[in-house]
Amino acid sequence: SHKSSKREWKPLEDHSCTDVPWLLLFILFCVGMGFICGFSIATGAAARLLSGYDSYGNICGQKNVKVEGIINSGLDLTHKKNICFLFFLHQSFFFFFLSTGSSLCSYELQPSEYTTDPRAAKLCPKYPVPESAPIPFFHRCAPVNISCYAKFAEALITFVSDSSVLHRLISGVMTSKEIIMGLCLLSLVLSMILMVIIRYISRVLVWILTILVILGSLGGTGVLWWLYAKQRISASAVETQIAKDNLQALLIYAISATVFTVILFLIMLIMRKRVALTIALFHVAGKVFIHLPLLVFQPFWTFFVLILFWTYWITVLLFLGTTGSPVPNEEGFVEFRMVGPLKYMWWYHVVGLIWISEFILACQQMTVAGAVVTYYFTREKRNLPFTPILASVNRLVCYHLGTVAKGSFIITLVKIPRMILMYIHTQLKGKENACARCMLKACICCLWCLEKCLTYLNQNAYTATAINSTNFCTSAKDAFVILVENALRVAAINTVGDFMLFLGKVLIVCSTGLAGIMLLNYQRDYTIWVLPLIIVCLFAFLVAHCFLSIYEMVVDVLFLCFAIDTKYNDGSPGREFYMDKVLMEFVENSRKSMKEAGRGGGAEGRELKPMVGADEE
């Protein structure tokens, strides 16, 4: 009933903890991640990784425990912090030992036996020993000469040896570093400005989109019919099977393009009014960023937290690579292997990477949703909290971490099978038959589509949770019902809106690139500015994508709030709208249009009733 529906939606009135069992499960999972880190440190993996160890399991800089079956294990290397080849060695190993004190041969061979013992051919490295340099903080040395990495850098070596282009490109970057930094700052400023002014140019962008679609569809259809007519005239003179097949193919293409164009025009005709809603939402989104300027910096905090977590994850991954019990191998050296259930810690660690990364991204979505919901459902904007972003973060931490954990886990459940199938497809490339390859790609594609749909539904579920403080499943169900009821509007926002944001990204990249060309042009006589320009354009695109993705998120949250507002309110006393004046004008114009068309009842009759007592700025 309407009363029950109204009781279910109480924006910002009730706050209660949601999905607490999932929060406990997530905390237990994080404890497991901490156990993996602690285990790897406790078993000496951290010491082996940081200090380095030799082929017999001896860790540099400390006393070592004897490994059963390995003669040269258990040595005292307290005074040997690292084993490092510091000189390009052409002299004998014995003279190298006398001059540096470093033993380059195996431990069982004494320095005095380097030149006399026949085992030296096997126990000593082959000449010449390449020059090396120490790596800071890791007690290891790496060859200075890049040719030592020929197995995995052969293409780069060939490129460098054949020409000096690489050196000139790098010198161009170093010479233009001030300009590059200035242009990167320019792209940052342009992105922030665009987020504010896009509400004023959204109508122009929609017209650009409409004109391009019309010209593209009509032009493509016209060209196909022109080619068909031309081919038909020429085919009448040359009666060959190939000419007939080409003519038939062109006819099919032309008819298909014509049908597509007609359907496209009908869709545009049906959705033309709903495009106005997209423009209105973009306009209100611009106001949101004026009232909530900290939203602009949300991608930076999320990126910073992700970098910290990924750094931790990679560090523990390196620890896991050296953890385990020492085991002699066939060559008489020591390998560290995990046995029993502990060997599955790798899989646990990989799942942790996906789940926690998705959890961090979901926290960003919930934070943005909470801040925008606060803005939308606060009638007097002057009564907004001092920092709605921090208020949203506070609600997230106090009430809704369990909902975020559950939503991110669902994405993880879809992402892991897709990654496994992608790994199988990579391993079987060139070995599987065509049918198996097609099935694998189809499964990967389906899982990718499912992941995108669930991500979009999750985002709207977080918005519903921020509005009504309900658990994840209830919020997802409510959001899904609202989206289905407004399917055409959703389609308009996700097509027209995404294209508008794409044009915004193109505008920022082109503006930054044009400024780069004009500035770097002054250095054209002594600098290759192709690479600096590429760097600047890539950075501009990434910055624009980060900023405009937040803008897109705000538009989606505003749309769900608007749909709920128009569904349960009609502007009458006691049921006043929460929406902005721009959205009210859209509703009023739609109501007038439907009255003029004599369709005042219809599917949208509830949300187009006269508005009375709306309190907006």
UniProtKB/TrEMBL annotation:
Coiled coil: none annotated. GO terms for molecular function: choline transmembrane transporter activity. Keywords: Membrane, Transmembrane, Transmembrane helix. Its main location: membrane. Residues 594-609 have a biased composition (Basic and acidic residues). Belongs to the CTL (choline transporter-like) family. It holds the Pfam family Choline_transpo. This is Choline transporter-like protein. It comes from Glareola pratincola (Collared pratincole). GO terms for cellular component: plasma membrane. Choline transporter. It is a multi-pass membrane protein.
